[in-house]
Amino acid sequence: MEAKFKVINTVISELEKGYVIEVGILGEQASSIHKVENEKGELVMPKQPLTNAFIGAVHEYGSISRNIPERSFLRTPLASRVPLLIKANVDTLVQYLATGRFKKWLEGMAIKAENVVREAFHTSGWGSWKDLKPATIRRRKKGKNGGSPLPLLDTGQLSDSITSRVVTNED
Asked: Does residue 145 carry a pLDDT above 70?
């Protein structure tokens, strides 16, 4: 009986730590300047520098003034796929909670959530994102690598800026 109480106390202790998974354009990645391709196909600093976080926000929510449609690479993919990830990993969740390794389990889930976001980039939001305009595709084809016809994948800078971390309410 005493062993069961120890496990229950361990679970309660782990849950009281208030861990949170953050997934997105975090830390240094957020303030990194998003480079643009010049006429030679080289990535260079733009005349008006924009950060990865700014570019990400414009695409995540869309911009009427810039005529950019919403292409949610964070909110929609995570809301639709993370519950499935949790369900598929609930057995290990119980094991990790009971042994005081809940943070380790969350770190694994954070990596899986990053992969969900990357999958959204490579599938155009599982086919839900508006296609690129023909002029954008033509401009991209002139680039050094021939450019991607998929939205948000031309240079890979935005998708490469996605990271995750597990923090507590106190962090």
From this structure: no
Of the candidates 59, 53, 25, 31, which has an alpha carbon nearest to the alpha carbon of residue 165?
Answer: 25
CA-nearest of 80, 52, 66, 65 to 162 is 52
CB 14, CB 97: distance < 8 Å:
yes
Residues found in the chain: 171
The structure's pTM equals 0.83
- Report the C-alpha gap between 72 and 81 in whole angstroms: 13
Name residues whose C-beta falls within 8 Å of residue 28's C-beta, 6 or more positions apart in sequence: none
What are the tokens at 156? 């890979």
pLDDT tens for 67-91 read 899 999 999 999 999 999 999 998 9
